[in-house]
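Meet our chain:
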Amino acid sequence: MKKPLIGVLTALLLAGATALTGAAPATAAPAVAVNFAGTVALSNCSGSLVRLPNSTSGDPALILSNGHCLESGMPSPGQVVVNRSSNRSFTLLNSGGGSLGTVRATKIVYGTMTDTDISLYQLNTTYASIQSRYGIAPLTVSASHPAQGASIKVVSGYWKKIYSCSVDGFVYRLKEGGWTWKDSVRYTSSCNTIGGTSGSPVVSTATGEVVAVNNTGNEDGGSCTVNNPCEVDQNGKVTVRQGINYAEETYLIPACFAPGNRLDLTLAGCTLPRP
């Protein structure tokens, strides 16, 4: 994991835009360019304002980041946080990375570091209200698995920096300390993300959609320790790649949400870990 920017040693694992109109489900449009519009800065991480493929303009807006970026601290292995009250604030950014204002959560809809490393917050406002007030539309979370070799950008709202690289491949199991993540994205070396980029959206340059959330990297060449994740294949072989960074896929998220951006982990096709 990445070292924290504040407080005691914690894991700071490394966190596009389609307008929503009317009350009918909105459709995604290809991105012309990837910039900071719709990204957010947390107190210690990055994140993004996101919609699901079937979200509507009147739905309560969602913020995506890492599970290890929760204000309550990193979830223990096996722990899943669902519908917990929160008043966390996020700085919403424009296309150039400038601050537009603050948006605030009402609850943590979902958060975990088991199998994946994600957090989703529900805001006290709708996509339509954010569009009207700030002129910002959310990024769309893709419902499709990312492709090897795909061109991506990692957009850090905390550092106001965009990293460009490609999907180098996928990791059967990525282990770091007591946590294990499944089917993680491995970047090519040019995405040399650092602490504070945790939670940044990983955006496809072909579609402008979010395909993963940035979360960790091997800093010192250690094996399977905090800040030094290791790759484990189907046969148990361990590989260490010093200086290489990773993200957790997000295509599993849409299948776990009912209309109205309502989390329902019992839906057919939902495979996110349950409490």
Q: What stands out?
A: Residues 1-261 form a domain with the Thrombin, subunit H fold (CATH 2.40.10.10). Residues 3-32 have pLDDT under 50 and may be disordered. The CA atoms of residues 10 and 36 lie 26 Å apart.
